[in-house]
Amino acid sequence: MKNQFLTIALSFLFVPSRYIEKDDVSLKEKNTTINYTTIRDSKAIYDQLHLATSGLSDKAFDYAYRGYQYLTKKQKLVNTDILAICDFSQSSNKKRLYILDLVNNKILLTSYVAHGRGSGTEYARQFSNRSRSHQSSLGFYITSSTYYGEHGLSLRLCGLEPGFNNLAMRRNIVVHGASYISDQYLNSNQFMGRSYGCPAVPESECEEIIDLIKNGTCFFIYHPTKKYLQSSKILKG
């Protein structure tokens, strides 16, 4: 009997390496980078960054920051310094992409960003998670890795919200540059061009934008659609 107990005890000391989850190690390493000093009052940050003068509504920022806090506390983010917001309540003719440095209280960049052609013309009004809908998908994403495709440098987005954007990877919803989203395009058109659902950005700023938000940043696409705001589990916290 003693030998049996000894054998069992020793077996726990020699667990084969294939049973050790690599994700446990990466998560531990990721967690050490989280900066919890960024968790502050959203109204104070909104005022400090003068976001009202940049066109971002306090509601849009409050929802974005609420989700950012949730994802930070759940240790889902790698880059907790940056928050990216696409405000699709605004006209596509406005610079409605905001990249914010929450540690140093800076607006790093504002730029144009396209919505899907199935979502509307100048304003986005309809949203979908379905393939081939050519519509934008609302909610929270975590930026992933970059690659070079038909649009050049592109950034994958991982949708976090079932029913709203969790099929983003399957739909190839990515950040990429496009010629139909620029001042030059707007000079000869009534409103900005539209994508197949991707948050496309100006080609001239694409590399800078992707470099700021790649690899684990919170990316939020906002619109005051009641179905989303009332159903999002991330917003409910």
Largest sheet: 8 strands, mixed
Task: Assign a percent range to the helix content.
Answer: 25-40%
Order of helices and strands: HHHHEEEEEEHEHEHH
Spatial order of the strands forming the largest sheet = 3-2-1-8-4-5-6-7
Unreliable stretches, pLDDT < 50, 5 or more residues? 1-38
The rounded distance between the terminal residues' Cα atoms is 52 Å
**Total strands:** 8
Shape: globular
Average pLDDT value?
87
Oligomer classification? single chain
| Count of helix runs | 8
What is the structural class? alpha+beta
Strand content: 15-25%
Radius of gyration, CA atoms, in whole angstroms: 21 Å
Question: How would you characterize this protein structure?
Answer:
With 237 residues, the chain is of the alpha+beta class. The chain has eight helices and eight strands, in the order ααααββββββαβαβαα. It has helices spanning 2-13, 22-31, 42-48, 58-73, 183-187, 203-213, 226-231, 233-236, and strands at residues 79-87, 97-101, 106-111, 139-149, 152-159, 174-178, 201-202, 217-222. Strands 3-2-1-8-4-5-6-7 form an eight-stranded mixed β-sheet. β6 (174-178), α5 (183-187) and β7 form a beta-alpha-beta unit. The chain is globular, with a radius of gyration of 21 Å.
Give me a quick take on this structure.
The chain is an alpha+beta fold. The protein contains eight helices and eight strands.
List keywords for this structure.
single chain; 237 residues; alpha+beta; eight-stranded mixed β-sheet; 8 helices; 30% helix; globular
